[in-house]
Specification:
8 helices; single chain; four-stranded antiparallel beta sheet; binds flavin mononucleotide; globular; alpha+beta; two-stranded antiparallel ribbon
């Protein structure tokens, strides 16, 4: 089970507990994931909304122990490699930057990144609902990762997501142990404005 969120996660307004309850630990248990575990996360992502239902998100994933996992892991920055290689699976979140217009032409899809973000959030929330944890990382070598996953032209990589069963913080490098707690949030009044920015 996921560790309960600490008091830094008190919502200001009524909200389903999954939202403050989801967080991004770095400690993973040494428990393997099965293909079906990952496919359930990606199935959740498949149902995300997207501009004109283009569904621009693309995923490349591998289970720990597979060559693909090592290839993705090698492209992570050392800070992330220090903890993420213990995850049960790594998922690369990418998107196709163009869509096919009614004329048949490929035209820029200005919403591809926004939509890929929606899909990642579905992965994260489904992981939480499945009793797993998911931790997104932007810290990777883009060129190396693009090569490792054979990224097609016209696609961009947004993040690598480490997923698995939550583990004991004691397994983390010492520098990360104190950071293994759910983070707080800005006040809603700093983020949301009624009518116009104040
Ligand atoms: C696009 C993106 C990139 C991130 N990159 C990293 C990263 O490279 N390394 C890391 O340890 N955490 C990374 N994070 C995790 C964030 O730091 C984390 O989501 C944020 O602090 C909020 O905490 P929470 O997810 O526990 O609520 C990233 C998260 C996102 C969404």
């Amino acid at each position: 089970m996921n560790a309960p969120a600490k008091t830094t996660r008190l919502p200001e307004h009524p909200v389903d507990p999954q939202f403050p309850g989801r967080w991004s630990p770095r400690a993973f248990a040494d428990t393997a994931l099965a293909e079906g575990d990952v496919l359930t996360l990606l199935e959740a992502a498949r149902w995300a909304p997207s501009s004109t239902n283009v569904q621009p998100w693309r995923f490349v994933w591998a289970l720990r122990g597979e060559a693909g996992f090592d290839a993705i892991g090698t492209a992570l920055v050392p800070f992330n490699r220090d903890w993420a290689l213990r995850a049960g699976a790594l998922i690369v979140v990418a998107s196709k930057t163009t869509r096919t217009a009614s004329t048949g032409d490929e035209v820029p899809n200005g919403a591809h990144a926004f939509d890929a973000g929606s899909a990642w959030m579905s992965v994260a929330l489904q992981a939480h609902l499945s009793g797993l944890v998911a931790h997104a990382m932007g810290g990777f070598d883009h060129a190396a990762l693009a090569q490792a996953i054979a990224l097609p032209e016209g696609h961009v990589i947004h993040a690598v997501v480490a997923v698995g069963h939550q583990g004991d913080p004691a397994t983390l490098p010492e520098s990360l142990r104190a950071r293994e707690v759910p983070s707080p949030r800005m006040a809603l009044s700093d983020l949301a404005h009624r009518g116009k920015f104040s």
